Amino acid sequence: MPAADPVIETVDAFHRGRFHLVQPKGRGHRAGMDAMLLASLVDATGRVRVADLGAGAGAAGLAVAARLEKAEVTLVERSPEMIAYAAKSLALEENAALARRVSLVEADVTLAGRARVAAGLADDVFDHVIMNPPFNDAGDRRTPDALKAEAHAMTEGLFDSWIRTAGAIMVPGGQLSLIARPQSIGEIIDACGRRFGGLELTPVYPRAGENAVRILVTAIKGSRARLNLRSPLLMHDDPESHKFSAFVDDLNNGRLAYRRK
């Protein structure tokens, strides 16, 4: 059999060089704006424990650690290949200042009960849990890249199992944050159920007059507050430009948090 083509790796700078990420090129999911918006949902001043579920190469979790100097971040990923990339990122000299505050757990987010605890995800540990679950519907055309398909393919009950795990490993009053497609709003609300309340939903639009492409969701474990639909977040002010708005650029580069109302 012919030898497999070597995987090309890139080292990409985020937050204007405050941290770097090792990623495969042409394989798997490439981190970008979604991960940075997700990371911006963590708003804290003191010591905070954060779990990034389905972390991939670790972009969102590392972005939290880079912005919040007292954040202790656990990257949770089931793919041995992707968690190996996260380990490579932590070994970079450019990430030395944050690497000591970041740990890796190779585990399936859908594990429950004793199996989850045995995998390294104990009950009532984290103050924040962030996630960017697979978002492609089963009817969408699938990519031939198996690693990318695993990162993108949604399965039945996915939100319920991921949010169940988030609720189990989070302290009472902790915050759940996620980014997803707008079509998943109903499933997310159902999955939060009585575990989480005080949901805040922000639709993300490319430009005025266009349809939303993402939603940002935050919720509080054990809260009984009602759902709040927030003002839309517009990525671009100028309909003719691809330049981000000043606020979105600050979120993307780790200069601001997207705070709850």
TrEMBL record:
<keyword id="KW-0489">Methyltransferase</keyword>
<dbReference type="GO" id="GO:0008757">
    <property type="term" value="F:S-adenosylmethionine-dependent methyltransferase activity"/>
</dbReference>
<dbReference type="Pfam" id="PF05175">
    <property type="entry name" value="MTS"/>
</dbReference>
<dbReference type="GO" id="GO:0032259">
    <property type="term" value="P:methylation"/>
</dbReference>
<dbReference type="GO" id="GO:0003676">
    <property type="term" value="F:nucleic acid binding"/>
</dbReference>
<dbReference type="InterPro" id="IPR007848">
    <property type="entry name" value="Small_mtfrase_dom"/>
</dbReference>
<dbReference type="GO" id="GO:0008170">
    <property type="term" value="F:N-methyltransferase activity"/>
</dbReference>
<keyword id="KW-0949">S-adenosyl-L-methionine</keyword>
<keyword id="KW-0808">Transferase</keyword>
<dbReference type="InterPro" id="IPR029063">
    <property type="entry name" value="SAM-dependent_MTases_sf"/>
</dbReference>
<feature type="domain" description="Methyltransferase small">
    <location>
        <begin position="36"/>
        <end position="181"/>
    </location>
</feature>
<dbReference type="InterPro" id="IPR050210">
    <property type="entry name" value="tRNA_Adenine-N(6)_MTase"/>
</dbReference>
<dbReference type="InterPro" id="IPR002052">
    <property type="entry name" value="DNA_methylase_N6_adenine_CS"/>
</dbReference>
<protein>
    <recommendedName>
        <fullName>Methyltransferase small domain-containing protein</fullName>
    </recommendedName>
</protein>
